[in-house]
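Example 3.
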Amino acid sequence: MTATQTATPAATPATGWDSELFVLAAADRAALADRARSLAAFVESHPDTALPDLAGTLAVDLAPGGSRLAVVSGSAADLAARLRRAADRLADPKVKQVRDANGVYFFAEPLAEQGTVALLFPGEGAQYPDMLADLCGVFPEVEETFAWCDQLAAEAGRPDDSLRRVLHLPPDATPDQKAAAEAELRKLGPSIFGVLLADLAVIKVLWNLQLPVAAVAGHSAGEIAALLAAGAMRSEEMLGSRLVETLDLMQRQEDAAGGPEVVLLAVGAGKAAVDETAAAVAGGAVLVAMDNCPHQCVAVGPAEAVARVEAVLNDRGVLSERLPFRRPYHTPLFEPWMGPFRELFAPVPFADPHTPVYSCSTGEPFPPDPDAARDLFVNHWVHPVAFTRLVERMYADGVRVFVEAGPRGNLSAFVEDILRGRPFAAIPANVPRRSGPTQINHLVGQLVAHHVPINLGHLYAHRETYRVEWEPTPSPPAAAGGLASAPDVMGDYLAAMEQFLDVQREVMGAFLAGAGPAQAGMPVQAPYCLVGEVIEHEPGSYITFRRVMDEREDRYADDHTLGGRGVSRTDPAQNGLPVLPMTFSLEAMAEAASLLAPGKVVTAIRNIRLSRWLPFDPEPTKLEVRAAVAAVDPATGEVQVKADVRDLGNSFHRDAAGKVACEAVVVLADQYPDPPAPLPFELTGERPCRSAVEDLRRNMFHGPLFQMIRSLGRCGAEGIEGTLEVQPRDGWFASNPDPTVVIDPVLVDAAMHILGAWHLEQPDWTGRILLPIGVHAVEFFGPVPPVGSHLLLRGHNEEETARQVRHGVELFGPDGRVWLRLTGAGYWRFYLPFGDVNFFGPKDQYFLTTRLPAAEPPGRPDARCYWISPPADLQQPVLRASGVRVTMTARETTEYNALAGTDADRSDWFFGRLAAKDAVRAAWHARHDVATFPADMEAEVDPDGGYTIRPRGDAEADPFPPVAVAVAGGKVAAFSAFAERVGIALELLPKKADAAAERAAREAAARRAVADALRIDPTDCTVAAVDPATGSAAVAVTPGASDPYPNGSRVRAQTARTGDVVVATTTCVPA
Amino acid sequence: MRPPEHVLADLDAVVRRTFPDRDFPDAVSADTRVFADLGLASIDLVVLAERLEQHYGRRLPFGAFLKGLRDRRADDIAIGELVEFLRSNLS
């Protein structure tokens, strides 16, 4: 308990958690409904289950993406009933969303995939007695914020005047005391300051929930909180006794104010209706001070003029209500109050915000110029609030989720009214009708259901919860030689969270003092290689830094390219798409953690989750790393830091900007733990590796910087052994030959290559493209081994399924003891269509498309038809972009990057060119026995869809043989032959097509292929005969339609069916 | 006066039509509370009033109704109260 709390025991707010949030995810809604029913059945059969334990378990287990359901409930029986009802709703395909005010949320089209999240801060008028009092007991940051007003009052020498006495009443307050407090709260100072405190308290809760915020705005006085939250306004100058004094002064002005009585009238109609009435009966004396939404505005004016407007509106049936105070905010009538305000804010430094702030007077983002921003902010008190315009503008800028970060929930209702009928969510963090904890559960539940990434651990940070095994799970990792079962990470985390409170107090105290935003934008000395611009840093508490991702500087990236290396003979430097290695995300988080706990060493990185690739963009993008101290154990000196990594936008994942790509908990201690005994390494079917180190290198996409494996030793079902040599780090960065590292990310990455070697030893190579999705833990038992060390390395195969594999690695130090242990490394397997060819091997030897010999005309041994029905994996934006990088020329890649169309357009662009190149180079190879890289060919596509393929970078060169391309329903086929005319057509068959349907499709395809080759209308082609046995068709051409050839003769086409597709090709030889 | 069950059915239908993106309890009864159970906000009540006037094709004295609630410091509105208000003004 703090000293100030002892001095002024104002309230006993701790009511605790009166409900819990239960979150479920599954691959699709049918599976989600099944899980909901399973959970309901479990709860029904185990009614005594501790709900916080169950909720905490589900929070830990929540997988990224998928279909998601969130349920808020306070009892087992109620939870089961809601889950069953939700499952029934999910089973109804017509139901696109479940948004039940009682706390059931599901969205088939989650908003996080459609836009960004913004915070809206309410201003005066949002306050209500005891607001957030019941959150003080569950979130220490809320308690700290309100305790701060006790501190301010004590510092001002008036400890009995703490605003908290009015904000949070003791439970035994009499009705008279309550009425007096309510009246006090309506006054200028208490209303503005009270709401500001509540807004700041909510910010801190949201910050700890790690809500990704793309923009902020405030309504009226809520603009103060918005500017503070965005780092646009320095807090220390104003969030002190000066603000209190200023508000006191203004209050005295108000109390002493004479003159005509001013009335504020809330009207249940839009601004236009009120303006019109005011103009008609009040001669402009009544102004709309707040345009809140189409069904509410606030009119202000002299009492008598307002009465006339009120009477007319009431006659028309428009609802209205006089507000219980008489300050003419947001009109020129407020000018007499402005002197102290202008003085207060004149010296306050404004800065470029780290998050865009929108002005409630203009609806536009604040201007970048600090003085202009200050003027706009200060003068907003005498200008109308244009909330409708503000929300429309934020929506136009891509905001889809509005979180109201303050008390009451009025702004959310305004947003509901403004955006009615469009896809959006407006969610209050606090409402008077619900307990604080329950409303937080509703807020977080809706965010989860909308796929907004959120740190659910914060809901359990101050409670001890235990795992509940409620559903039969796949057996735990059958780790080679008995790996200990995965420890309860959440349990560890939460137990350590006991220490969180003390740390958090310091964090919040510093936050209020403004130390955080003060450093915004200030570059600091970068002791570690990945630390760029520090956005905010509260030593010992939290840090956010950014770093530009630029291929020119980040040379390691060119040795880590998705799609492989050496993809062009013409340009040997052309590689696949550079992506940030997972281990660089780990290094970045470890660096952030080390800055928060200087002097300590990183002993582990736990609970690593990867949700997407971070590709290097043609335009340099920025990486942002956020980290916060989550727990401190004073007894052991251990510190846990929760961290995440994201990029601030890339052209491949246009919607992913700002979303977390990798997150983990970094553990630091005063010294490294003693190395443990190695894991057992008994190999079933032990034998020496068949592959050589050279084979491994050829089969991975890593360049020389990452190639540390020096030998491959014994191998068996459970694992593989080898050695590596630690390589110098001077080639990683263009400008930094001696980077300072915490974990040596290249070494950790290279150690994992032993797992690639294990896969090479397996007979089945399909599904070998692996995307890491998470790692249970990487533990370090000493400092990074010196460059040049030769180290023993072991890979463990923990578990393998069709879609995932899980591995472990142990790397031994120069002393032969374990230096690094990596456990539970989960990989997602990608299935790409190469047959038995090597994705990372030479690109002139493999084809992403498939040959369809049955569609090649007989008698033309060097004609080639290739087709592809692009698998979902290959249409995934980053994999597709990597496909472009390895099969297209630089000019084509630039053209692809600039494409403005839909995702389907990008697929058609890519797969059309890919199939054309594959058909052409196959035909070329058939005639000349010369293999060609697709990236050494360039496609020219005319407006009619005609393709010409030439050697790369030589527009004058003779083209390769002619090629024709057909696209239908995303499927693509191409045909190339050394012939004067080539044509192709592709027809999709209906499901379960019978012989008649297939025949019709063959006829249609044959006609269209001939029309394609002759550049005529298909109606001028008639199919005379199709031989279903050979696929050969004779097509008659209307005389005169195509001169001089075939001049009325019949020509031959070849048709073939594969699956639900019929392809026809032709060289228009006479039939 | 219209039978209460008819007005309740009207009210139920207008509420669902007015707020199509929200889920309401399967059975709305006289005891259902507008704010606590249906999750409506006060602005929503203004919108609902507008839609009810459109539905019945006449102006209804919602201002007086809401003032009465305010005067007795009601913190929620039971659907039953709204039904009675509608019945007495639709007769």
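Chain A touches chain B through 25 residues (CB under 8 Å). The first helix of chain A runs from residue 3 to 7.
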